[in-house]
Automatic annotation (TrEMBL):
Gene3D superfamilies: NAD(P)-binding Rossmann-like Domain. Residues 3-102 form the Pyrroline-5-carboxylate reductase catalytic N-terminal domain. The keyword Glycoprotein does not apply. Keywords: Oxidoreductase. This is Prephenate dehydrogenase. GO terms for biological process: copper ion import; NADPH regeneration. InterPro entries: NAD(P)-bd_dom_sf, NpdG, P5C_Rdtase_cat_N, STEAP_metalloreductase. Pfam families: F420_oxidored. GO terms for molecular function: coenzyme F420 binding; cupric reductase (NADH) activity; ferric-chelate reductase (NADPH) activity; NADP binding; oxidoreductase activity, acting on NAD(P)H. The lineage of its organism: Archaea, Methanobacteriati, Methanobacteriota, Methanomada group, Methanobacteria. It comes from Methanobrevibacter cuticularis.
Length: 226
């Protein structure tokens, strides 16, 4: 199974790439520019202090989407539509994990505030943009900060709240994400639950600012998970 991280050159994407490489997965970094993706591969090698990482490559978002089995979208809200349109011919039959958070920064505001979207959430907006495609959209990673992901010698002390309408695809995504040490995936139900989950992120960002931390995260207690 190949995981393609679209916008994987950025803060969140690169952290996800590193965590899946550490977990032994095959990963492709996608970018608008293939060269930038290749540079990001070199950066991962430097960070992990490995001269060669066989299961990692970098290419355009289009090629990455074409080659990937599971696609992970890690671009800012402003780039969501354009990125999805650029790869729409390559998503059929695949799972697309959406990490997008609709932060107020998209209109010049605070990262501790969200913007309401007509579709209810960024994940539902992704599903609407790809409505003609046979793709299962799963919302995940929204509440896990890049600081946690990039602290890659440590386990991640956070739960990953996961939403999606297709049960089987959601399970595949959760099984994959659970390979990252420390993370516990929680099935929050249908994709519309992303409306709640995405709004937790600006709360966490605000808490990190208030308490001068980079590692504020979320744990749900009291559930018996399989
Ligand atoms: N950072 C976090 O801690 C965090 C936590 C949870 C969720 N998220 C969410 O994850 C997503 C990515 O966050 P991030 O911090 O990684 O963002 P980022 O670093 O600003 O951008 C990620 C990548 O998106 C592409 N991109 C940026 N602006 C673009 C534009 N105008 N048009 C097309 N592509 C553009 C770039 O890739 P190329 O130039 O290579 O194409 C960039 O490297 C966001 O939706 C964010 O809300 C982030």
């Amino acid at each position: 199974m190949i995981i393609s991280v679209l916008g994987g050159t950025g803060d969140q994407g690169l952290g996800i790439v590193i965590r899946f490489i550490q977990a032994g997965e095959k990963v492709i970094i996608g970018s608008r520019k293939a060269k930038k993706a290749e540079d990001a591969v070199d950066k991962v090698k430097q960070l992990l202090e490995k001269e060669d990482i066989q299961n990692l490559s970098g290419m355009s978002n289009e090629d990455a989407a074409n080659k990937g089995d599971i696609l992970i979208l890690t671009v800012p809200l402003a780039a969501q539509m354009g990125t999805l349109k650029s790869v729409e011919n390559f998503v059929d039959g695949k799972i697309l994990i959406d990490a997008t958070v609709p932060l107020d920064t998209v209109i010049g505001g605070s990262p501790a505030r969200y913007v309401d979207l007509w579709q209810g959430s960024a994940a539902e907006r992704t599903a609407e943009i790809l409505t003609d495609k046979n793709v299962a959209v799963v919302s995940a990673f929204n509440n896990i900060s890049n600081s946690h992901l990039m602290n890659f010698n440590e386990e991640i002390d956070c739960d990953c709240l996961v939403s999606g309408d297709d049960t089987e695809s959601k399970k595949i995504a959760m099984d994959l994400i659970n390979k990252i040490p420390g993370i516990k995936c929680i099935d929050c139900g249908p994709l519309e639950k992303a409306r709640i989950v995405e709004k937790i992120t600006p709360l966490l960002i605000g808490l990190n600012i208030k308490y001068k931390s980079h590692h504020g995260g979320l744990r749900i207690t009291g559930l018996k998970l399989d």
